[in-house]
Specification:
The protein has one domain (about 5-80): hypothetical protein PF0899 fold (2-Layer Sandwich). Helix 2 (about 40-50) links the parallel strand 1 and strand 2 (about 60-65). It has helices at about 5-20, 40-50; strands at about 25-35, 60-65, 70-80. The protein has a 3-stranded mixed sheet with strand order 2-1-3, covered by helices on one side. The chain has 2 helices and 3 strands, in the order H-E-H-E-E. The protein is an alpha+beta fold and about 80 residues long. The N and C termini lie far apart (about 30 Å). Helix 1 packs across helix 2 (about 40-50).
Length: about 80
């Protein structure tokens, strides 16, 4: 399940950016995932929720926009 390692990287990026932006709690994360990327959105979301416990992203809801491509993009994230 390579989604676990992708979720780890994603969480690291979000935590570091939240720290840089002085965000104490991330509420939403918007991703774009291509259907041909080999990434299963449900598995990625599950892995992210599991890994984000006790972090600034613990309460974040992850929204996925699926496209026809092969990309994985963090479109945006919001928090307080």
């Amino acid at each position: 399940m390579h989604e676990l390692s992708i979720a780890e990287e994603l969480l690291d990026i979000i935590i570091n950016r939240a720290r840089d932006e002085h965000i104490g709690s991330v509420n939403t994360i918007n991703l774009r995932i291509g259907r041909y990327s080999g990434i299963l959105p449900d598995c990625l979301t599950f892995a992210f929720e599991m890994l984000s416990k006790d972090t600034v992203a613990e309460e974040a809801r992850v929204f996925v926009e699926e496209t026809e491509g092969n990309e994985l993009q963090i479109l945006s994230f919001e928090g307080e």
